């Protein structure tokens, strides 16, 4: 069942081109099965539990009876999540405490991290019993085994969840056509491949989605039940209603034809390798977030997309992450001891090499998607597609160049990244000048957010400058080093300013209503400000004044500092303040406020003009040295 897995140079070349046929996807999945067999072996060698070994014995018997039964349950995405989590817990068995409220609760652009403490490490082991039961069902075996419920329930992967009340131990048995989970009787037959899951007093079945376009079918389990579906605690949705399942089905029926008809080879790979979707709960800040766990090949977690196009793009993007994660398990592409941070224009936090490579790989597919949409859309949406294509072509190219220049890549990794470079270099399509300018502004927006979130001036010099300003002295012509100190939490790039630009292009009439006040801005974009609206409309002077007032009211409001810097950059030379770097101005301003010396941010920026800011060595978005630090976990 385990074995050596190799990717040929042709396999790697196809994957580097962003593709990978169905045979390659099956090879990657086989690699995941072997990896999980090794993890299971380590778990069994670590745990001294007769019950765990009995559960494994049933799994092994089922695998012997049916060659596909054992690997099939190991290939399930959340089997990988369970094994990885269980092994981490066994290495460090102390239950983790809830994260502190301050930084705890925000991640990936606003999703709230659930902070419930983890169950005792022994509880992690009961999942093997459920997996063994499913393997035995697949092998057509009669069996009986005992498991410990989790939170009053027993979950059977691929089937559903039985509610068993306060029972401390439950017997799962199958005799002929009867499957019993404690007092709950369930049909062992395969469920329907489309529609909401069954719902009774004691049982919740898994939901299924199915869509076909031009002869190619995608089948997805919409998973709101598996206790291991949310190992990153990113607010997995609780039980969906039939109406919510129907809405997911409608969106899939809109999305799948887009992928099949315009990205057929990607669609074939997705149909082969992606089978599970975990719905996430979204608030107004975090809508549109997609996440892929490197431990759960074949599954994606998503907030519900706004339309079929967004769903198609999300599936395309996330399966790129899954492919590369599985590729790295078979063929290392970089040195995991690389300690350098990289600027990634799709995240607001610095990224280590592996995560930067993941981002480039995913956003090559995003760029390809928008490249094709330009010819398929019309009016404002077509113009927006042109902007997105221009933006991501440039940003991905620059990040890829950083990886080529500074990354500690293996020989296979150098070939892989060279393949990515060839794809990007082939995209020489001319871009409308206006779209190119908007793409440049979007890149500038992100870089400004990143700088203010992650770069810090020397605090000793900040204190000296604040003291000089408070004393009424001239600003000294000093040099300040800006060092990268990543902000707490994981953040995807979400900008109300860019959202308003998109609205201006795709729905100019609604944008006009927002500008005139006929529609309240809070109804369209709750996180946007009047300054954001003015900036999106090109009224840079009004935007700067709005942001200035916001900073004076709340100097901790990062979005106001970002907007102030962007408005200043876009003004004509005669209207510019001509002042300091925003990182320094913000730090000195906050220190002055702390010391009881209120200040006007624009006047302070003018005063700070003699100061020179330099970045500490590492990487800047133009490939010049500027940012270094220790590595952080590989996630894009």
Structure notes:
- By secondary structure, this protein is of the alpha+beta class.
- 50% of the residues lie in helices and 11% in strands.
- The protein is built from 23 helices and 17 strands.
- It has helices spanning 9-16, 22-46, 50-65, 69-74, 77-91, 101-104, 127-138, 242-262, 264-273, 308-330, 353-376, 379-406, 411-425, 433-454, 459-470, 496-506, 508-516, 521-524, 530-536, 540-553, 558-570, 582-594, 601-607; strands at residues 106-107, 111-112, 143-147, 153-156, 160-163, 170-175, 178-181, 184-186, 203-205, 207-213, 216-222, 276-280, 290-291, 299-303, 455-457, 479-484, 612-615.
- The strands form 5 sheets. A 5-stranded mixed beta sheet has the order 10-11-12-14-13. It has a 4-stranded antiparallel beta sheet with strand order 3-6-7-8. Strands 4-5-9 form a 3-stranded antiparallel beta sheet.
The average pLDDT score comes to 89
Rounded to the nearest angstrom, the distance between the terminal CA atoms is 31 Å
Uncertain runs are 96-112, 620-636
Q: What kind of oligomer do you see?
A: single chain
Beta-strand proportion: 5-15%
| Helix coverage percent | 40-55%
Output the structural class.
alpha+beta
Rg (C-alpha, Å): 27 Å
Tertiary shape: elongated
Question: What's the total count of β strands?
Answer: 17
| Largest sheet composition | 5 strands, mixed
**Main β-sheet, spatial strand arrangement:** 10-11-12-14-13
Helical element count? 23
């Amino acid at each position: 069942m385990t074995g050596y897995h190799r990717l040929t140079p042709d396999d790697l070349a196809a994957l580097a081109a962003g593709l990978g046929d169905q045979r390659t996807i099956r090879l990657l999945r086989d690699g995941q099965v072997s990896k999980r067999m090794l993890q299971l072996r380590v778990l069994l060698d670590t745990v001294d539990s007769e019950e765990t070994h009995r559960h494994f014995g049933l799994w092994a018997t089922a695998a012997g009876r049916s060659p596909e039964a054992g690997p099939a349950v190991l290939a399930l995405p959340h089997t990988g999540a369970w094994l990885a989590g269980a092994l981490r817990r066994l290495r460090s068995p102390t239950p983790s405490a809830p994260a502190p409220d301050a930084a705890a609760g925000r991640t990936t652009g606003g999703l709230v991290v659930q902070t419930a403490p983890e169950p005792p490490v022994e509880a992690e082991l009961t999942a093997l019993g459920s997996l063994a039961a499913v393997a035995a069902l697949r092998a057509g075996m009669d069996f009986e085994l005992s498991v410990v419920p989790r939170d009053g329930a027993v979950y059977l992967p691929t089937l559903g969840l039985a509610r068993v009340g306060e029972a401390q131990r439950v017997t799962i048995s199958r005799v002929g056509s009867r499957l019993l989970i404690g007092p709950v009787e369930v049909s062992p037959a395969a469920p329907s491949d489309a529609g909401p899951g069954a719902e009774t007093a004691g049982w919740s079945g898994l939901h299924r989605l199915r869509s076909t376009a031009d002869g190619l079918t995608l089948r997805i389990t919409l998973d709101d039940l598996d206790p291991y579906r949310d190992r990153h605690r990113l607010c997995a949705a609780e039980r969906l209603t039939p109406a919510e399942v129907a809405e997911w089905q409608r969106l899939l029926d809109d999305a799948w034809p887009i992928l099949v008809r315009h990205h057929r080879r990607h669609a074939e790979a997705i149909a082969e390798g992606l089978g599970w979707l975990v719905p996430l709960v979204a608030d107004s800040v975090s809508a549109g977030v997609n996440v892929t766990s490197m431990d759960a090949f074949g599954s994606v977690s998503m907030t519900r997309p706004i339309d079929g196009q967004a769903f198609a793009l999300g599936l395309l993007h996330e399966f790129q992450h899954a492919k590369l994660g599985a590729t790295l398990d078979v063929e290392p592409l970089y040195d995991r001891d690389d300690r350098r941070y990289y600027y990634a224009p799709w995240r607001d936090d610095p990224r280590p090499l592996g995560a930067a490579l993941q981002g480039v790989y995913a956003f090559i597919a995003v760029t390809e998607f928008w490249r094709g949409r330009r010819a398929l859309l019309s009016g404002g949406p077509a113009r927006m597609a042109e902007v997105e294509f221009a933006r991501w072509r440039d940003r991905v190219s620059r990040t890829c160049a950083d990886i080529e220049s500074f990354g500690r890549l293996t020989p296979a990794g150098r070939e892989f990244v060279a393949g990515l470079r060839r794809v990007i270099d082939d995209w020489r399509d001319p871009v409308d000048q206006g779209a190119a300018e908007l793409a440049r502004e979007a890149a500038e927006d992100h870089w400004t957010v990143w700088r203010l979130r992650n770069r810090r001036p020397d605090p000793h010099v900040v204190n000296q400058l604040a003291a000089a300003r408070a004393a009424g002295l001239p600003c000294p012509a000093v040099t300040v080093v800006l060092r990268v100190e990543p902000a707490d939490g994981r953040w995807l790039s979400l900008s109300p300013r860019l959202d308003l630009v998109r609205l201006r292009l795709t729905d100019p009439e609604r944008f006009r209503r927002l500008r005139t006040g006929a529609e309240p801005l809070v109804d369209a974009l709750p996180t946007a400000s009047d300054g954001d609206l003015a900036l999106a409309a090109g009224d840079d002077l009004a935007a700067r004044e709005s942001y200035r007032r916001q900073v004076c009211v709340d100097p901790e409001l990062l979005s106001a500092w970002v907007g102030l810097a962007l408005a200043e950059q876009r003004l004509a030379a005669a209207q510019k303040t001509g002042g300091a770097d925003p990182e320094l101005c913000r730090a000195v301003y906050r220190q002055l406020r702390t010391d009881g010396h209120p200040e006007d941010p624009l006047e302070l920026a003018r005063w700070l003009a003699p100061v020179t800011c330099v970045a500490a060595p590492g990487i800047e978005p133009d490939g010049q040295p500027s940012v270094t630090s220790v590595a952080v976990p590989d996630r894009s």
